[in-house]
Amino acid sequence: MDASIPDAAVLGTACRPPAAAGPGTLAGIARKAHHRAPMELLEQGALTVDLGLVGDFRGVRKPTGRNRRQVTLFARADWTAACGELRIDPPWWRRRCNLMVDGLGLPQRPGAIIRVGGALLEVTVECDPCVRMDEVAPGLFAALVPDWRGGVCTRVLTGGAIALGDEIEVVG
């Protein structure tokens, strides 16, 4: 991780339980330039239909149009719960997802629509954790499997600028 990343890129380690209703907050933004590349933390970014999170290698629109994994999101509460079971406290970006959400339970159904700032994302599938999670800590993979704790994969329906602190909510 780059030591020059400002503290604002990580908004603390405490979490609120997922909200039953109402908006949450975009608490983290991260991207990687290629497979197994280190995560780059951002204070702001852009989501586009063709590139997903601009600068992240997974977001580029596929010729097949499937794009089931353009932008990945997870809830801080789920990460904290999984890590708490193992009594570990790794930084959130070790999850290797693009967006960390605070104060909002993510929908566990394909087709759900999430608004992040001015962008709209469609949930396509559950974001299954990969075996790399056990490189972070033994057992983390298994701790992220239940109840969609690994997060959701989405495709960008409408692009827009995003920044830490933006409101995020399920709109459909």
Overview of the structural elements:
The structure is a single chain. By secondary structure, this protein is mainly β. The protein contains three helices and eleven strands. It has helices spanning 76-86, 133-136, 140-144; strands spanning 24-31, 40-42, 44-48, 52-53, 71-75, 99-102, 113-116, 119-126, 152-158, 160-163, 167-170. A seven-stranded mixed beta barrel has the order 1-6-5-9-8-7-11. A three-stranded antiparallel beta sheet has the order 4-3-10, with no helix packed on it. A hairpin with a 3-residue loop joins strand 3 and strand 4.
Topology readout:
Blueprint (H helix, E strand, L loop, with lengths): L23 E8 L8 E3 L1 E5 L3 E2 L17 E5 H11 L12 E4 L10 E4 L2 E8 L6 H4 L3 H5 L7 E7 L1 E4 L3 E4 L2
Parallel strand pairs: 5-6
Antiparallel strand pairs: 1-2, 1-6, 1-11, 3-4, 3-10, 5-9, 7-8, 7-11, 8-9
Quick structural summary:
This protein has 172 residues and is mainly beta.
**Averaged pLDDT:** 85
Low-confidence stretches: 1-20
Instruction: Describe the oligomeric state of these chains in a short phrase.
Output: single chain
Main β-sheet, spatial strand arrangement: 1-6-5-9-8-7-11
Please trace the helix and strand order, writing H or E for each element: EEEEEHEEEHHEEE
Query: Nearest-angstrom radius of gyration?
Result: 15 Å
Strand runs, count: 11
